[in-house]
Specification:
With 500 residues, the protein is α+β, with helices and mostly antiparallel strands. It is 50% helix and 14% strand. A five-stranded antiparallel beta sheet has the order 6-5-4-9-8, with no helix packed on it. The chain has a three-stranded antiparallel beta sheet with strand order 3-2-7.
């Protein structure tokens, strides 16, 4: 008889059909159309990422990367300088233009695309009359092919064949995957080939031409790209478990009633089996309803019409066991598999478990998690590269030549990322020490009033300050030693009082 897994397979097949309609290889510049990719749905990580981008679990994982990134992007000034002395006269104009463009807000809005899909891509325009720039959003920025010529940036391919040079757009990626190369021997244009040879500045033999890459096409990839299949498996397990729970909640109770024996014919037995199947599968269409109102209506109907009556035929046949499948066991198995998968995905992404559970400070965790630190550092470099390329594009649109190496900019005002973390931790320690000193001064003021017994105050004070783990709390001396020092002018306590 059809069961939940058959129905779920039907639902997932419709999902696959919908996603497969988007499966095609783009036609790249200087390459032929390769047609459809491998049509096996489960082999394309990009399709998983497209489908799961609004799933709350995925959004939560992205937020773990986005949280420190938001602080870094929002707390820095977007001011550039030029290392080339000939370009320094343009610094004020470029910095004012970046401020007018609200670059900080643009970068913050792109966080999800950069973290989840690994790509930043914007189109930039310039109005010569008003001398103003505009930054334009693009649909699916990760659908951008980055093209290099002899190892240098050349431009970007959009919509399968539309080419933009580096002055027209800004692109930056978490990591790049080289998906297409064009060797020197495959360049058919004699003029273009000679231009490439002139640029190389040396003679290339015919035997070496197939090994020389002149054009390379790259696609962006994110930290989530390699985990797409496992994320989809978690999603599918959740999907099945959800409907297993629903089926378990609305399943009918089975009652049997004895009737007189019928003629011993196969057709009669088949009718009995068919009737049983129909009763057991009442309401199975609930699983494929897409309209929430229809689903709720069917659930209510199933709840109030949950009793079914089955006949038991004597003498030649009987239904001996009416125990239903234990859906709770299946759900427990799925939940166990999902927990193991989640742990594996988190480990593969380099996310510390305490960060995922919300039990630790992100900056403190960064200081001892190399993989998480490397991932955040890579995300920071995406934006640093983007800002530099914005400046290069702006200068190019103005008719001024500039390279990314000529632009000095850092989101952390120093490198590497640990500097920002050390700055943050130092501030936290400083604040904590100030609180400790305020407590100590309050105790001294209390003792100075003469209304309390100093020894009893200190006997209570020292254990409390150690219990709350204030800075250097284990170094506090016993109350007797402190009382002795309070009468000694050369003691650290009195020396500190004189300084303050």
């Amino acid at each position: 008889m059809p069961d939940l897994y058959t129905t779920a397979d039907s639902v997932m097949s419709s999902m696959s059909t919908d996603l497969y309609s988007h499966l095609s290889d783009p036609v790249y510049w200087l390459e032929e159309n390769t047609g459809l990719t491998d049509n096996i749905f489960r082999r394309d990580p990009d399709m998983y990422l497209d489908y799961l981008q609004d799933w709350d679990y995925v959004r939560g994982l992205v937020d773990l990367y986005a949280s420190p990134m938001k602080d870094i992007l929002s707390k820095n000034a977007y001011t550039i300088t030029f290392t080339n002395p000939e370009l320094t006269k343009y610094e004020d104009f470029i910095n004012k233009s970046l401020e007018k463009l609200h670059l900080k807000d643009i970068l913050l809005e792109s966080l999800f695309d950069v973290i989840y899909r690994g790509a930043f891509f914007k189109v930039i325009t310039y109005n010569k009359e008003s001398r103003t720039f505009n930054i334009l959003d693009t649909v699916k920025p990760w659908k951008t092919t980055y093209v290099t010529r002899l190892g240098q940036p050349l431009g970007y391919i959009r919509r399968n064949s539309h080419f933009l040079d580096t002055s027209q757009a800004v692109f930056s990626a978490y990591s790049l995957y080289r998906k297409k190369t064009v060797s020197l021997d495959s360049v058919r244009s004699a003029k273009l080939k000679q231009s490439l040879l002139d640029q190389l500045g040396t003679e290339i033999s015919k035997e070496d031409e197939p090994d020389i890459i002149v054009y390379a096409h790259y696609s962006p990839r994110s930290v989530f790209w390699g985990q797409a299949a496992k994320l989809f498996q978690i999603y599918l397990n959740d999907f099945i478990a959800q409907f297993l729970a629903m089926k378990d909640s609305v399943r009918q109770e089975i009652f049997t009633v004895t009737v007189q024996a019928l003629s011993k014919k196969t057709t009669n037995t088949a009718r009995v089996a068919q009737s049983i199947e129909e009763v057991l599968n009442q309401g199975s269409n609930l699983l494929i309803q897409q309209d929430p109102r229809s689903m709720v209506a069917q659930v209510i109907f199933a709840l109030f019409n949950g009793a079914r009556v089955l006949p038991t035929v004597e003498n030649y046949s009987a239904i001996n066991n009416l125990e239903l499948e234990k859906l709770k066991d299946k759900r427990a198995q799925l939940q166990g598999e999902n927990e193991a998968l989640r742990q594996q995905v988190i480990a593969n992404l380099g996310l510390p478990e305490e960060l995922q559970t919300g039990t630790g400070n992100r900056w403190e965790i960064l200081s001892r998690s190399d993989r998480y630190l490397n991932a955040i550092t890579s995300e920071v470099s995406v934006y640093e590269t983007a800002v530099k390329r914005f400046v290069v594009s702006m200068m190019s649109l103005m008719g001024r030549f500039c390279k990314t190496e000529d632009v000095s900019f850092s989101l952390l005002n120093d490198t590497p990322l640990q500097t920002q973390m050390a700055r943050n931790k130092s501030e936290m320690l400083n604040n904590s020490m100030i609180d400790s000193l305020n407590v100590i001064n309050s105790v001294k003021a209390l003792i100075g009033t003469g209304y309390v017994d100093p020894s009893k105050v200190l006997e209570e004070f020292v254990p409390l300050i150690q219990r709350y783990n204030l800075p250097f709390s284990s170094a506090y001396r016993d109350s007797g030693g402190i009382l002795t020092d309070m009468s000694d002018p050369q003691s650290p306590v009195n020396q500190y009082s004189q300084l303050n």
